[in-house]
Amino acid sequence: MGMRTIADHILDIYQNAVDSGASRINLEIKEMSGQLFSFKVTDNGKGISREKLSEVLDPFYTEKKKSKKFGLGLPLLKQAAESTGGVFELSSEAGRGTEVFATFILSNIDCQPIGDLVQTLVAVIQMSDDIEWVIYREKDGSGYEFSRTDFVRALGNDFSVNPVKIKLVREVIAGAEASL
């Protein structure tokens, strides 16, 4: 599976934050219809040392202990954003966390489609069961914000694993997206 949409990049970078051992992750998504799309993932995970910051943008570098010996997420995101005339920024400090920011120029012929944000946000919620997360979404000046705490209060601690409650979460997010 490749990174075919911007939503795929969001999911990949969010998964990196989960894998970093973060206890808190913020996801911010902003869009100006037909013009700009940006997202920022900020976590308080293990972070990346100053020496390794440039290495993580090498497509053949990874710290993951898996059968694949390279990590393409950050390099592909950087290429995808910059190929549209957009921006990619990575900042991190060992032991303190990481922030990844990308902006895409939607009108650029090289821009990937945004993809299914509703499904992406539901997946983000499901993969971060014990992590305090906040999702902020803005489009053309309107927006919404959800947090793990909001869903726990409304649906209980099992909201991300109970099939009926996951369906409700999907409906809430779909409704919020449709209102933008």
TrEMBL record:
Gene Ontology molecular function: protein histidine kinase activity
Keywords: Kinase, Transferase
Matches recorded under PROSITE patterns: HIS_KIN
Residues passing through the membrane, by range: none
Segments forming domain Histidine kinase: 1-108
Record field: catalytic activity: ATP + protein L-histidine = ADP + protein N-phospho-L-histidine
InterPro entries found in the cross-reference section: HATPase_C_sf (IPR036890), HATPase_dom (IPR003594), His_kinase_dom (IPR005467), Sig_transdc_His_kin-like_C (IPR004358)
E.C. number(s) listed in UniProt: 2.7.13.3
Pfam family name, one: HATPase_c
Identification of the protein by name: histidine kinase
Natural source organism: Kosmotoga pacifica
Lineage: Bacteria, Thermotogati, Thermotogota, Thermotogae, Kosmotogales
